[in-house]
Specification:
The structure is a homodimer. Chain A has about 675 residues and is α+β, with helices and mostly antiparallel strands. Chain A has 14 helices and 23 strands. Chain A has a seven-stranded antiparallel sheet, with no helix packed on it. In chain A, helix 4 packs parallel to helix 14 (about 415-425) and helix 8 (about 205-220) runs antiparallel to helix 9. The interface between A and B is large, with 87 and 86 residues.
Chain lengths: ~675, ~675
């Protein structure tokens, strides 16, 4: 990995004005910005529209309602700390909302939205102190002192989101003073925490990647140096030990020595993003290789089928290897988003399709799961097994807790909704790249692409597909300048195995997972058609994952399925086993014609055998013979409907389950 | 249950001066006090001696060192709140220590210990305010006001432990002013929280059972009435909603409506104890039946093989039914102790052996697990699967966290060590009972019994046994007065199945689980001998417990076994499957001759098959065929040593596992 990663390719440097969330100056691939990729109607376009129409405004309304935007006015009016609302990090959610507004303006050009963002930016600017310090929660009379609580204060974390918003404002071309506010804050951080300054890091990584992006946007080396300092400083016990342990904020081990992501999942993944950014900009192959190694182990042993990361509610953290309980999956929405951010950075740096594969899995099965169909309520945690319908959050109150059986409109800790908003608004920035030889389509979604190739040629491409529901992806060349050959690469997802076929101008051929590449002097009207085998399939876990031993899941294309039983009753999902002797079938009739073309499935299920009545005085343990449950499907089976996991919880209280115990016919084994 | 429970038997009322932790005035059985049961050398005697010699002094030393005893002196000297040490509830641990000292004095009569306890009691008495209020954390200038934070303040919880210590002082006949201090505090509580007073309950149940015991000790009905009021008041949302949810402190549902124990395990179980006490004293069969119903469901679906309760680290709480992950078992030591306290109360009320069975399981596999072999370090949580050796707590510092891979000498929240101390000191009070017809031996441990039967007769019995390692329990009559027949009942544990035989003066007969009863006009020299089948056995879980599906555990007699691999390396316990085609065998040689006669076992294990390399881009999921791991033991097997679970963690860092994946030979199924 180190060797390949060091093969940087300066020729594909991102133009300074490209509207991209991540703009590495080197790497294997250059991202296409949200101006070069336009989503067309389909799975992600629908969600991006809903984000624009509902989610961004919803977040603004709630941030006003709970007083987090008001904190800035209260600061100017001298009403702090008395009138301050929200937790330490409330400022950051205002910044994440601003980032979403900037990307959305960059994408759709809504002047009213830009004006609103600029007004909000002005209110924030008014709070910034002469030395650049900016936080509504620290430093005033009656408040704790600046940087007096690096473990939990989140001041640098808040700057990180401010700086990301500022970069979005710069690249989206809008939002008034926001970029300058962010830059002054970054200058303050460099002065305060630079060499010879405070020897600290933030309890929540985030500023690292923000500073690198600011470096990329401005060319000012001190931002990169400060980011590098933060990345390397952490892990040497610079923060206090806490009840959750120092691994909670990755201060247990220097980043190059760790073997896997650990501790608080969002913190760990944001830190990894920053480390990749530093590694790429400084040409540090060792650091990049360390993160790739940690990613590999994390994916191999600490990642849910949905791409979700974080197995523990306690500390919102990664657990040990193979500790992946479906019922207690934390799998925070923000961790899924952070994982996509990391996958994207690793893809750009290395060009390896495995990173795009994980991003796809995580996008469809975690990021898409969080928002409700109306875009106005969100899952914070993303369980894979809802045993009981549980409590339903009010649509009129902020939820006091992260975990709920249905989506909540807002949370006391409400990082997820604004993270969804900024991700959906910038989604087109995660679809395609170019390199010296051509263009790569990583996410198979309907869109138009107008990449400026590094050598100055332009291509106009239209991608048509009903993916993920349908397996056909057509790429049509609508415009091509120059007559030199260029490559078009389509990602063939890992899940397709050996079943994909590419039809091109020069014939058809089976294509394996990775990239199907056609090099050609393209002419308008040329077409590539990728056919992917989207039949439903059974998926089984590594036997070391205790929590789902003996279970199967169902996937179809990139989509993970689940059984959902709506209703207040507990349902009976904990007493079923599925018959895997025949494949899942696609549902027909009403159930198969849901909006958006989502395909539903049906499997056959039967009751789990009753446990034996061993001599255990009422306990669920006994001298029951082995394999008791395995004869289960000899009993009558009944059809069990499955829906895409990302659609669950939209029909009121329900029980839900991704992994289903497998009935094995003892007579046939 | 209700009907049987209402068959109270006033004839067996406990004498007012009996040294028992629980002294119901009615019920099926009367407990024998620590003066009537003397443990003889063996499993529990060894632990009681260690408690007396090491643990009690260890707790005193640490409470001085961390300043919790010093809080009382600081209060008298006007140095609060500045000098206060510890969490809100630090006072309670001083009271639990005092309770342990009182029982220990009652048991062994050590005058120095009593004098020390009396001095400590005097320091506490000096802090009590004229109206009976007593707490080092509230009510002074600079402190929060009295009862200003019922959710988290723990004031009533602290009184609960003070009152239990006071009752122990009264019944143990010692510790100076302690009883009077407790009584004044109880009077204050009745005045403050009685009818027309504050309409609140404590965020942590505990005072309920303490007030009932004070009623039993004094005959003052107002204490019982106050306890009843607290029990019934909870569950009506009298406390604030909190992030963990109102079920955390059982304020979600009135106690009669709940279906199972839920929320914080210790809180739930302490509350249930208080409810049983109230039900028994008020003759409320409905309330008793509600608790029995909740106990049944909790045992059937929310209890670990070790008897441990509390499946979640978050909120130290019960999870949903069948949510019993071994790796993340919280199974707090205090919850195990609380479960034994509850089982004992239900046994006394109903006479049903299932409660004694659960107490036995919990005593041997949870309560005995907490203290280290030297009695100076403790498990707070009791996992069933230690995946990695993890961090080792310092023996010189209080642990900042509950969860650790080895026992810690003390904790920032240190409820468990003093709970162990008071339980071990009063252990003899949980062994045997009498009723109108005779004596019942519930725990099969070496001891002498001198029960005063209700009709005035006396019996002198000696129990000799190497239980739990050996299956022979001999009861010898050493003295018998009067010539009337009396019954001697020996509990035959549920685990014995149909394999037990009782040999008595009139012959031998197989005896099933429950009580083997012999009625006879006993004469000195008569002997009963119970033979229990202590061969190792495989135990399998209910198939609804996802986390251990396809696994087996090994038990022998009442003892749960585990595999432990000492050393800093991760070991390879996560990659093994066991061959269950032959039974576990008892180890011979050095491994079988450990102190205390503990028996070690050996099973055959082989590597889990490698997971298939499905097309999942590095994830641990794929289209692997079913049953891949089931062919595992066709590979070479190797012996895997097992030790009693309660002995694990005494050999330095280690991995450990109770539930082991089962290799199934596909050729034979």
């Amino acid at each position: 990995v180190a060797e390949r990663a060091l093969t940087f390719s300066p020729a594909v440097a991102v133009p300074g004005d490209a509207a991209v969330p991540v703009a590495p100056s080197r790497g294997r691939l250059r991202p296409l910005g949200i101006g070069e990729v336009r989503l067309a109607p389909g799975f992600w376009h629908e969600r991006q529209e809903r984000n624009a129409e509902a989610t961004i405004g919803h977040c603004r309304t709630w941030e006003d309602r709970v007083g987090w935007t008001g904190n800035f006015r209260a600061a100017v009016e001298g009403r702090l700390p008395g009138d301050r609302q929200g937790r330490n990090f409330a400022d950051s959610d205002v910044y994440k909302l601003l980032e979403a507004m900037c990307w959305e303006f960059g994408r759709a050009g809504d002047g009213d939205l830009n004006a609103e963002a600029a007004r909000l930016a002005a209110e924030i600017a008014a709070v910034q102190e002469p030395d650049g310090y900016l936080n509504t929660n620290f430093g005033r009379a009656g408040q704790a002192g600046r940087y007096s609580d690096l473990e939990w204060g989140h001041e640098l974390y808040c700057y990180g989101h401010l700086i990301q918003a500022g970069v979005a404002a710069l690249r989206g071309g809008a939002a008034g003073q926001l970029f300058e506010v962010a830059r002054r804050a970054a200058d303050h951080v460099c002065a305060e925490f630079g060499p010879g300054g405070r020897d600290g890091v933030c309890g929540h990584a985030e500023i690292e990647m923000a500073l690198v992006e600011l470096y990329r946007a401005t060319g000012e080396a001190r931002y990169l140096e400060q980011a590098s300092l933060f990345v390397e400083r952490r892990g040497h016990h610079v923060l206090d030990d806490i009840e959750l342990g120092r691994d909670y904020f990755q201060d247990d081990l220097p980043i190059r020595q760790a073997g896997a992501f650990r501790g608080h999942a969002v913190r760990a993944l944001y830190l990894a993003c920053g480390a990749v950014d530093v590694a790429v900009e400084t040409g540090d192959g060792d650091l990049l290789a360390a993160i790739v190694r940690q990613w590999e182990r994390t994916v191999a042993a600490r990642t849910y089928l949905t791409g979700g990361m974080g197995a523990r509610h306690t500390g919102e953290s990664f657990g040990e290897d193979y500790e992946l309980p479906p019922d207690r999956a934390y799998a925070e929405t923000c961790a899924g988003i952070a994982s996509v951010m990391l996958s994207w950075r690793l893809l750009l740096a290395t060009g390896e399709p495995r990173f795009a594969d994980l991003a796809e899995r995580t996008m469809y099965n975690l990021v898409a799961t969080s928002p409700a169909l109306d875009g106005r309520a969100f899952f914070y945690t993303n369980t894979l097994y809802q045993r009981r319908p549980g409590t339903v959050p009010s649509r009129d109150e902020a939820s006091p807790r992260a975990h709920a059986s249905l989506r909540a409109p807002w949370f006391n800790v409400s990082c997820c909704p604004t993270n969804v908003a900024r991700t959906m608004a910038s989604l087109a920035g995660y679809v395609a790249t170019v390199d010296d030889g051509g263009v790569q389509l990583h996410q198979l979604t309907a869109c138009t692409l107008t990449p400026a190739l590094p050598d100055g040629r332009t291509l106009g491409l239209r991608v048509e597909t009903g993916y993920p529901w349908k397996g056909t992806v057509t790429v049509r060349v609508e415009a091509a300048s120059g007559g030199q050959p260029a490559r078009i690469a389509l990602r063939v997802p890992a899940w397709a195995g050996a079943g994909a076929v590419l039809h091109g101008p020069e014939g058809s051929a089976p294509v394996g997972p990775g990239y199907a590449v056609v090099e050609r002097a393209w002419r308008a009207g040329d077409e590539l058609r990728l056919e992917l085998p989207v039949a439903p399939r059974w998926t089984r876990p590594d036997p070391r994952i205790d929590a789902v031993r003996g279970c199967v899941a169902v996937e179809r294309g990139p989509i993970v399925y689940c059984a959902e039983i709506p209703g207040d009753d507990q349902g009976h999902l904990d007493g079923l086993a599925v018959d895997t002797s025949t494949p899942p079938v696609e549902a027909t009739g009403a159930a198969s014609t849901e909006a958006g073309g989502a395909i539903h499935l049906t499997v056959k299920a039967s009751p789990l055998s009753e446990p034996g009545t061993g001599p255990s005085a009422g306990l669920p343990y006994g001298e029951r013979p082995a394999g008791g449950e395995r004869a289960a499907h000899q009993a009558a089976t009944e059809p069990l409907p499955l829906i895409p996991y990302h659609r669950w919880g939209n029909r009121g209280p329900a029980t839900m389950r991704v992994w289903l115990p497998e009935a094995v016919d003892t007579a046939t084994s």
